[in-house]
Amino acid sequence: MPREDGWLGSRWNRLSGPGRIGGVDLARGLAVLGMFAAHLLWITGSFDWTRPDTWITVVEGRSSILFATLAGVSIGLMTGGRMPLHAARMTTARARLAVRAGLLWVLGILLIATGVPVYVILPAYALMFLLALPLTSLPAGVLLPLAGALAVVMPFVQVFLDALPLWTSAAGYPVSMALGWHYPFTTWIAFVVAGLGVARAGVTRPRVQVWLVVAGALLAAVAYGADAASGTRPETEAASFLGALWTARPHSTGLLEVIGSGGFALAVLGACLLLCRTAVRWVVLPLRAVGAMPLSAYTLQLVVWAAIAAATLDRVGDLAGFRELRPFWPLTIATVLLCTAWALLIGRGPLETVLDAASRFAVPGDRRAGGQADERGRTDPADRLVE
User: Fold this and answer.
1) 3-state SS class at 279
2) Which of 93, 113, 182, 323 is the most buried (most CB within 10 A)?
């Protein structure tokens, strides 16, 4: 292990020292690579535990929901972890988060403008950041029940929102892109609030980590079991209100998807946190490096995609043509290697650095406003966790 007082040691410590929660990075890395797989692989059929060839379908919808849940965890860590920041420090942290949200929205629109045929999550991600800001002073005992209530109630409302005439009008497409409506913030805010509640409960506490695995697995089993037992079909979703509501199909925002995939996200987070309490932490270091700079990794994938498609295909939006190039493994391996090298040799990811610098420039204040100082005056790890 490199010396902590050396140049390489300081980078190593930033990635693997006490200032980071390895399980959160691992979960973020899995979420990013899961979205790579959902974008770049041909995925057909449905998940079946008895057939390993279907296991890749787990990335559909669930990767982005895990990403949204981890956004809530990051917001919670940046605003104090288990104990919310007080007064001026919370105001500063919220303002910086608002700046980040604005920059994420702009970046999302720029990525959409490349013509890459995916639903870019960043506009919705930005809106969910803003919606979560008023909740950052609440404790876990309020946030977690609130997340549960939103998960149960909002899918009923979402059916009506998705049926609005706006979406079939001339303005429907640009509005849906600007809002990231494929990931409707009106319902997906439940995942962010859940993540915020987990951060307030104490994401580093073993009891909380075990609780995440058990409760998340139970929620997933109940929802996916209900979906399987009722024999829902995609074609029934458009036929009735109940059909649109009672489904676990990825990206349906149905009640069973919200509960099942939300539970899956919590279980994955808990499992990653527990794994990183063991020697596995070092085995998965490359994945943690990706999770330490998720915005850079996600953006790089889409930019490289646009460049390759523009050079080799008739149009950037040719999804089938790009998938036929079999880009998943080359892009994934290159991303993991690049992120690992960058984390160890340079440090924070490039886009994470830009967002942090811009938010601090726009909202001056205590350099440690994003993290809680302990009784010895040391900054809480949260200040360096939110990349």
Assistant:
1) coil
2) 93
